Amino acid sequence: MKRLLLACALVLAAPAFADETDYAALRADLVDEVRVYAGYAGDEPFSDAVLEVVGSVERHKFVPPGQVRYAYENRPLPIGHGQTISQPYIVALMTDLLVPDEDDVVLEVGTGSGYQAAVLAGLVDHVYSIEIVEALATSAGERLQRLGYDNVTTKLGDGYYGWEEHAPFDSIIVTAAASHVPPPLIEQLKPGGRMVIPVGGRFMTQLLLLLEKGDDGEIVTRQIGAVRFVPLTGEH
Amino acid sequence: MRRLLLATLLVSAAAIGYEILLMRVLSIVQWHHFAYMIISLALLGYGASGTFIAVLRGRLEKNFETAFAASALLFSVAMVACFIVAQRVPFNALEIVWDRGQFLNLTVIYLVFFVPFFFAACCIGLAFTCRGEDAGRIYFFDLFGAGLGAVLIIALLFVVSPQTALVLLVLLPLAGSVLVTTMLGSRLRLGIAQLAWLALLALGVPQAHLELHISEYKGLSQALQVIDSRLLEQSSSPLGYIAVVDSPTVPIRHAPGLSFGTRHIPPEQLAVFTDGDGMSAITRYGGDPAAVAYLGDLTAALPFQLLEGPAVLILGAGTGSDVLLALYHGASRVDAVELNPQMTKLVSQTFADFAGHIYEDDRVTVHTDEARGFVARSRGGYDLIQIGLLDSFGASGAGVQALNESYIYTVEALRKYLDDLDTGGLLAITRWIKMPPRDSVKLIATAIEALRQSGVSTPGRRIAMIRSWNTSTLLVKNGEFTSTEIEHIREFSRTRSFDTAYLPGMQPAEANRFNRFAEPYIYEAAIALLGDSAGEFFERYKFHVEPATDNRPYFFHFFRWRTLPEVMALRKAGGAGLIEWGYLVLVATLAQAAILGLVLILLPLSLVRHDWPAGTGRDFGFYFLLLGLAFLFVEMAFIQKFILFLSNPLYSVAVVLSGFLLFAGLGSASSERFAERVPWPGVSPVVVAVAAIAALALVYVMVLPVVFARFIGLGDAAKIVLSLALIAPLAFFMGMPFPVGLRRLSAIAPGFVPWAWGINGFASVVSAVLATLLAIEFGFNAVILLALLLYALAAWDESVSRSR
User: Are residues B239 and B308 both part of a single domain?
Assistant: First the structure.
């Protein structure tokens, strides 16, 4: 009888153990996939530090219960309120484009699920994140706190004017689409700083806008799109 | 019998009304290309009902009135029930690339909406089958009702919301059901059901569940998620559902293409959404130009650097942004053309104080008109014709508009704009930039083609394009750019961190300074297009960037099959945005229509006993298949062609559809007498009818552009009458081959009649979608010519089978 009870307990507990093990393995697979695609946006591979963090942040804890089984697929997922959690590849790429440093202070406009902030938190000194949808701001703030991301500060509000009291920032990431780059954000970017903005629909990032502020304050942007995708045939 | 005819009319009117209503509703809650799904759905319902009646004919004939009344009642209930159910299917069109389960959701929606059309078609089919002796009159009431329904729903949508229109439509088949029930002896159970349904409607029970669930990924839904945002105003008409949103805590700041270097922030704005998407903004203006100084830092401000106090024509005035832009830059006169009066009313009345009464400015005249129609009537004399951003980046970027015909950006349109400009005048068109560029390249190609067709040998000296990171503004000059003007463009761009994408005589290094692409794509494209290698360039470019024409007005169609495997492979590496998925949804709809057509129409027919002579299938099956394909090809091509003339897609659908229904009905009713009076012995009436169709259609292909150009300036009523007059003779003859064939078949092999209906219905289902795909690829004229070939084949087939 004891053996039977033990067997039952093991069977019941198995999914929980399997869960943990599986997620780690799935994350490792995901990182492998993301690494393969790194060259898509240029010749440089992603930095090991970025991939390491993508491999450690538990994405399944940032998606709604119904989406957990897809959490480690390399695709965007709906998180409610008309918002999505970005495709892991795009998160890795955006993070890599910021060239994060452990002393950096980063501003994020558009907290969403908090996943991007969590990835950045593993690489920089502090992340300030602003969200305009109340429900998301609340849930992401609580989630980040619960998961121990102490170096992320979130708030509900308008990201257009940045976060004056913590400015200037080493880099800024704008995860919500905008018709133009808010001038106050450019002002709050340090000389030599970088800003990344994904452009396109919720499930289809068209391109990433990388804005670099020179030491003299001059702004240059690069459209990071499908580098491997040459629009003319015969020019590969 | 009179009651049955009236009931037929009511059911038929409701079916067409419901079809058009669903097209409108799906444009609001999802996106416009699902309209094609609805057309094929309605036809599928008709096809499947034919099969259903054929299979159960004996039983249904015995209880004809009961079956008719029950079907009409079920149609009435299903109109509402399926509307409610379909909106609860968690279909997300945007996720189709990632999640194959979305195809399943789409299929469920397809099947749900099939139900009401099936019941409607059962009523009509039952009347034909069981009261065949009165087929002529039934056919006329059916078609007349359909025409009436199309007109009725459009009129209704001008005065009530889509939901209210639905509730009113529901009453039509219910009334039809009651009418036929009164022909019965025993009517208790049906009567109770009808009363119960009426009571539910009177109590407003279904109405409580009719709210529109707009996709949460559309702009309006997203804006309403923002803290403290609120819906200020909404209105609906066949031209669109307009919603105005205010967001005091996180202000709306819509300024596409605003320079990085600007020190000016847009003032308070209200967001305006059309059909839940395509955001534009009404900007607060108190008369102080300094408050809207950001307008000088947009790419769209470029033409004003070259013109002093210009007379401006704005095509697509929308919420008045371009009017404000022109006034800010000291325009001497502004003609603002906007198709949708609801939009104009927002700026001129509802939010006139907010917008600073710009439409009351002495210099401004607002015209409620369609761009091409206005330009056709215009006497010209403009220094600047401005076409701003009429759509949102989200819609543009995802290829959502791939199937939207747009007569604003065609070669013929650009030629006309240039004609309307004074010497030295400018045409300015602003578009979103995609990566790799698509719109911008196609726009340059279109401008070059328009200039060449106008006899300009050096188009490269008359075009200039600048770009920010997300917008490009193209200038086409009526004359060559002077070196001073070129310097002005350079200076304007440099001081605002814009790049000169193309300028006459520029160096490649200038093209990629501030907003860097991997390569200076637009410049390279312009050079290729201006040289001798344009054809080769179009062939090599991985997107479709050949100029749009009036015959093929799909400016937003960039899809190429050969690019699909590559972009699908790059999907997981951030390349999903390269997929022009609007087109793929149409292909998926075609596949669905074909499969479900086979399953619901042709498969059940195999259950019917085969009691016809050998060779019947060969003699007649092919004939009815060809007719089904050909009829819809012509009808769909004409709907598209008449959009240009009637200036509105919905008018075109209503007029062309009712015209074809009515006159084909008359042709069908006259077909017997026509067949008897063919003066050439031994010549089949089908051959004569097809010859007439071919002659008329070929004349139309050649003459319609001239007729449209000559009469596009007429008022709506006159244009509708003229359209009907043009459609009448063609539709009249197109109505003949089917009944002539059916009569011959009834005499030889009556058992095959349901197959004839089924095969014809199946061909119609497929043809409705296929016609659009073919038009996108080859143009409307090709679709019409193909239809004529199919008609000729049908006539030949019929002659051969007659001679056997």
Answer: no
Number of domains in chain B: 4
- State the DSSP H helix or E strand holding residue B455, giving kind and residue range, or none if neither: none
B305 shares a domain with B163: no
Q: Which residues of A touch B225 (CB under 8 A)?
A: 81-83, 132-133
Residue B361 shares a structural domain with residue B447:
yes
Please, is B6 exposed, middle or buried when counting C-beta atoms within 10 Å of its C-beta (0-12, 13-18, 19+)?
A: middle
**Res A170: pLDDT:** 97
Are B277 and B28 a contacting pair, CB within 8 Å?
no
Catalytic residue among A56, A86, A113, A139: A86
The answer to whether residue B556 is domain-embedded is no
Amino acid identity of residue B699, one-letter, is V
Flag whether B31 is in a domain. yes
Residue B83 lies in a domain: yes
For testing contact with chain B, the best of A35, A73, A196, A232 (most B CBs within 10 A):
A232
pLDDT for residue A14: 43
Which of B92, B222, B573 is nearest residue A37 as measured by Cβ atoms?
B573
In three-state form (DSSP H/G/I as H, E/B as E, the rest C), the secondary structure along B565-608 is: HHHHHCHHHCCHHHCCHHHHHHHHHHHHHHHHHHHHHHHHHCCC
Give the alpha-carbon dihedral of A213, A214, A216, A218, to 10 degrees. Answer: -60
- CB B198 within 8 Å of CB B172: no
Closest CA–CA distance from residue A6 to any residue of chain B (Å): 40
Does one domain contain both B378 and B496? Answer: yes
| Average pLDDT per block of 10 residues along chain A, 236 residues long | 47 46 86 80 78 94 92 91 89 92 95 96 96 94 96 94 94 84 92 89 75 91 72 59
Q: What is the pTM of this model?
A: 0.88
Is residue A139 among the annotated active site residues? no
CATH code of residue B778: 1.20.1250
> Could you tell me if residue B600 is inside a domain?
no
Domain that holds residue B325: 285-550
Kindly give the parts of chain B with pLDDT less than 70.
Answer: 33, 35-36, 132, 186, 391-403, 572-574, 576, 609
Angstrom distance (rounded) from CA B269 to CA B256: 14
For residue A11, the model assigns a pLDDT of 45
All domains of chain A in start order, with CATH:
2-224 (3.40.50.150)
| ipTM, interface predicted TM-score of the complex | 0.84
- Percent of chain B exceeding pLDDT 90 equals 51
Asked whether residue B229 falls in the same domain as residue B188, the answer is: no
